[in-house]
Amino acid sequence: MGDAFRDPRHIVNGMTRVEAGRRLRSRIEEVGREIGVLLVVFCPIDFVIAADTPGGRTWLLIFLGLGAFLLGAALLAQYRRHRVD
Fold first, then answer.
1. Is the pLDDT of residue 4 over 60?
2. Which residue would you say has higher pLDDT here, 57 or 16?
3. How far is 72 from 24, CA to CA, in rounded Å?
4. Which pLDDT score, from 0 to 100, does residue 82 have?
5. For residue 10, how many other CB atoms are within 10 A of its CB?
6. Residues in Cβ contact with 70 at an 8 Å cutoff, skipping those fewer than 6 apart
7. What is the pTM for the complete model shown?
8. SS3 sequence, 12-24?
């Protein structure tokens, strides 16, 4: 403890920030997971509510596919990042 007060570099070294690139990548993965889950969960609910809308099944398949793609891509990226690190 005496070293930190005599040499302020020891205090600063303990408070270094995580690299911005890694933090940004993890936030992008998190956003992809969240959007994917929301699309997969709420798209069927929207389809049931708006059942009489023309082209509803097409939009259901588009949004379910997009949600599954975003969720899968984010999980795969997270898996690869943790496997490499």
1. no
2. 57
3. 19
4. 77
5. 12
6. 32, 33, 35, 36, 39
7. 0.63
8. HHHCCCCCHHHHH
pLDDT at 68 over 80: yes
If you write DSSP's letter for every residue of the chain in order, what string do you get? -HHHHH-THHHHHHTPPPPHHHHHHHHHHHHHHHHHHHHHHHHHHHHHHTTTSTTHHHHHHHHHHHHHHHHHHHHHHHHHHHHH-
Q: What residue type is 37 in one-letter code?
A: V
- As a whole-number percent, the residues of the chain with pLDDT over 90 amount to 16
Burial class of residue 26, CB neighbours in 10 A (0-12, 13-18, 19+):
middle
Query: Tokens representing 66?
Result: 């997009």
